[in-house]
From TrEMBL:
PROSITE patterns: ABC_TRANSPORTER_1 (PS00211), ABC_TRANSPORTER_2 (PS50893). Keywords: ATP-binding, Nucleotide-binding, Translocase, Transport. Coiled coil: none annotated. Part of the ABC transporter complex HmuTUV involved in hemin import. Responsible for energy coupling to the transport system. This is ABC transporter ATP-binding protein. Transmembrane segments: none annotated. InterPro entries: AAA+_ATPase, ABC_transporter-like_ATP-bd, ABC_transporter-like_CS, P-loop_NTPase.
């Protein structure tokens, strides 16, 4: 089932296209990695898909009323500033706001969703701590938990594993895989091509604002694409643990 449709999405900076006529459809049950070099337009594309960035073309998410959009898609931006010393549990509970009627108190269902998200990100015991007192990696886990607590059919995340240690990088990707297996749609911008290769069912390769490859990791991470877009050579190998990707050298 198609969960998200984007048609000819374009974002201009002056007269220069930052995102250039991108079209794609995401299916329920997919975990899709959005990859590309720095400045390729990944963040801008995600924001435009959500309707947070002025654009031409269409996005089935951007066209939704704000409240319905918040119940349909959860958003984790790349910037992770926590501006005030709110308790971790309270911050994660903010993910439930789209589901609350105006002024309503959190229900048992809201509290249960928050507890599940805290447990997923190994934050049990952190509930009453001020989020601003945590390390950068711990704060990142709290913000991922807030996204999980929102319990939307679609998750869009911009570099969700940045700043996490290797164990939590793997754990986060495994959580995304589990959610996709439950029928949710995940679109995450990733710079770690190794984790993208192993955990994503599909990769979108963006270069200079244009979608230049779209398909299973083994079909996108080809020597030609790696040289042309990233300027690298890499070792890519199928193993019992999935596709293994290791950059080797700069090729330009």
């Amino acid at each position: 089932m198609t969960a998200l449709t984007v048609t000819d999405l374009t974002v201009l900076r002056g007269e220069c296209p930052v995102v250039d006529q991108v079209s794609l459809s995401l299916q329920a049950g997919e975990i899709t990695g959005l990859i590309g070099p720095n400045g390729a337009g990944k963040t801008t594309l995600l924001r435009a898909i959500l309707g947070l960035q002025p654009h031409s073309g269409t996005s089935s998410l951007a066209s939704l009323p704000a409240r319905q959009r918040a119940r349909t898609a959860a958003w984790m931006p790349q910037t992770r500033e926590i501006a005030w010393p709110v308790a971790v549990e309270t911050l994660v509970m903010l993910g439930r706001v789209p589901h609350l009627a105006g002024g309503a108190k959190p229900s048992a269902e809201d509290r249960a969703a928050t507890a599940r998200a805290l447990a997923d990100m190994a934050l049990n015991g952190f509930e009453t701590r001020a989020a601003t007192d945590l390390s950068g990696g711990e704060q990142a886990r709290v913000l991922i938990a807030r996204v999980l607590a929102q319990e939307t059919p679609i998750i869009l995340a911009d570099e969700p594993i940045a700043g996490l240690d290797p164990a939590f990088q793997i754990a986060t990707m495994q959580i995304f895989r589990r959610l996709a297996d439950q029928g949710k749609t995940i679109l995450a911008a990733l710079h770690d091509l190794g984790l993208a290769a192993r955990h994503c069912t599909r990769l979108l390769l963006l270069d200079k604002g244009r979608l230049v490859a779209d398909g299973p990791p083994r079909d996108v991470l080809t020597p030609e694409n790696l040289h042309r877009v990233f300027g690298i050579a890499a070792h890519v190998m199928e193993t019992e643990h999935g596709l293994i990707f290791q950059p080797l050298e700069i090729t330009r």
